[in-house]
């Protein structure tokens, strides 16, 4: 019985890992099929969409979406090629760059958000009570605060 808390924690981790991996896989397929973008693309587009003037310095964007600078550069280059994002020299200094959504990028983000939200609601949120949602929010806010403080 002494290992019961540890096995329960292991079970919690395994269930979270499996469920989140499945949900991300389903989102990946739906976004590719219905919007022509990947889940990583959506993460970048949504972050830019929510930023002031739909733009952000590349370094800040990499931090926000938790991608390495090289991975972000690669993904943004694809989004530039697809005319969803433009990459501009920073006005602040000549060394940095800014990623900014194009009008097509704004439209694609809005359409993709509908797909994303409907899928998450259907597969995750609709079957949970408000109390369960509150517990999830409380738990992951604490986890996120811990990550940010390290």
How would you describe this structure in keywords?
Arc Repressor Mutant, subunit A; three-stranded antiparallel beta sheet; 150 residues; mainly alpha
**What is the alpha-carbon Rg in Å?**
18 Å
In CATH, the homologous superfamily goes by the name Winged helix-like DNA-binding domain superfamily/Winged helix DNA-binding domain
**CATH first level: which class?**
Mainly Alpha
Q: Tell me the strand percentage band.
A: 5-15%
How would a textbook summarize the main sheet?
Answer: 3 strands, antiparallel
Distance between the termini: 33 Å
> Which strands sit side by side, in order, in the main sheet?
1-3-2
- The total of beta strands comes to 3
- Give the topology string: H per helix, E per strand: HHEHHEEHH
Overall body shape: globular
CATH topology, anyone?
A: Arc Repressor Mutant, subunit A
How many discrete structural domains? 1
CATH architecture label:
Orthogonal Bundle
Number of helices, counting only DSSP H or I runs of 4 residues or more: 6
Kindly state the percentage of residues in helix.
over 70%
Low-confidence stretches: none
Any chance you could write out the topology, listing elements then pairs?
Elements: H1 4-35, H2 39-50, E1 55-57, H3 58-65, H4 69-81, E2 85-89, E3 97-101, H5 103-125, H6 130-149
Antiparallel strand pairs: 1-3, 2-3
């Amino acid at each position: 019985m002494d290992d019961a808390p540890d096995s329960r924690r292991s079970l919690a981790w395994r269930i979270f890992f499996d469920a989140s991996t499945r949900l991300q896989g389903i989102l990946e397929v739906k976004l590719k099929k219905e919007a022509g973008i990947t889940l990583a693309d959506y993460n970048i587009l949504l972050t830019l969409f929510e930023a002031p003037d739909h733009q952000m310095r590349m370094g800040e964007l990499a931090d926000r979406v938790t991608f390495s600078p090289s991975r972000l550069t690669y993904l943004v280059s694809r989004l530039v090629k697809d005319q969803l994002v433009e990459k501009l020299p920073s006005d602040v200094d000549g060394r940095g760059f800014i990623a900014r959504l194009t009008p097509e990028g704004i439209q694609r983000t809005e359409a993709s958000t509908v797909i994303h939200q409907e899928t998450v609601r259907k597969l995750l949120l609709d079957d949970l009570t408000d109390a369960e949602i509150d517990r999830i929010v409380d738990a992951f806010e604490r986890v996120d605060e811990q990550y940010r403080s390290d």
